[in-house]
Amino acid sequence: MSSGKSDIERQKKVGRWYFGGLASAGAACCTHPLDLLKVHLQTAAVPNVTGAQLAKPSLLSTTVHIVRYQGVLALYNGLTASLLRQLTYSTTRFAIYETTKKYLNKDSQGSVSTMPFYQKVLLAGFSGAVGGLFGAPADMINVRMQNDIKIPKEQRRNYKHAIDGLIRVYKTEGFKSWFNGASMATMRAVMITIGQLGMYDQFKYLLLTYGSGVFEDNLLTHFTGSLMAGAVATTLTQPLDVMKTRLMNAAKGEYASITQCAVQVFREAGPLGFFKGYVPAFVRLGPQTVLTFIFFEQIRLNFGDLPKKQ
């Protein structure tokens, strides 16, 4: 009986503001190679390490090409920047979303109730906007470090790690260059946070409400809800992700505006150009979303706080 009561209390626990950042960083360590492959496919117009163009690069051919010329560890190029990005961008968006949700989501007994769907969307969008802006410098360095092995050696930036990259960009290109593509990154962050945080909460609610005979607050529910959220997030963000990657990887003055970047993408590949790398994006974002929420839920269940009664 005490064990059952303990399980119920455990499931009522809510996360602390930094749990999302820790969970996202853990997920990034697992999915970083997939993120790197996505960046390579999105910037496929850039010459590769041999100076030649890859003919219709695929996920497999790009992987083989990187491993053959650079080695397996090259799949983890830019990992420090990826971790820095998660510890800034994801910590911020999770902190705002989860902290605000606690105040919007309590009934008179102090227990967590269900937020209306529109509140989840609005709160997730706002959280993503702040997180995207705050994490833009690390995101820019992340894209550059991942793409570095793809360009000729004499043109590589060769950042030692994320902090070195930020310092060198500041010294050589100025403070504003930290925010190259920040507007696109922020728009993408809004959409991906709606797709991930907002939709995960909604899918979890639907599974627990209408699938109560099968789904409980356990690993199966966390996996199913996060997988569906990952699919939504990929579809919402792919066009923005393609342009964000281009803008962040661009040389100074290469694109005068977001519109020019969009026109260039359209001229090169038509409407489908905005979904370049969609498969690896889902292959990366799906597991990343699943791992993030599985890690988050496990941290919440084991180290979270019980709601305080009012």
UniProtKB/TrEMBL annotation:
InterPro entries: MCP, MCP_dom_sf, MCP_transmembrane, Mito_Metabolite_Transporter. One of its GO terms (biological process) is transmembrane transport. Solcar repeats lie at residues 15-103, 119-206, 217-302. Belongs to the mitochondrial carrier (TC 2.A.29) family. It is a multi-pass membrane protein. It is found in: Membrane. This is Mitochondrial dicarboxylate carrier-like protein. Keywords: Membrane, Repeat, Transmembrane, Transmembrane helix, Transport. GO terms for cellular component: membrane. The keyword Repeat applies.
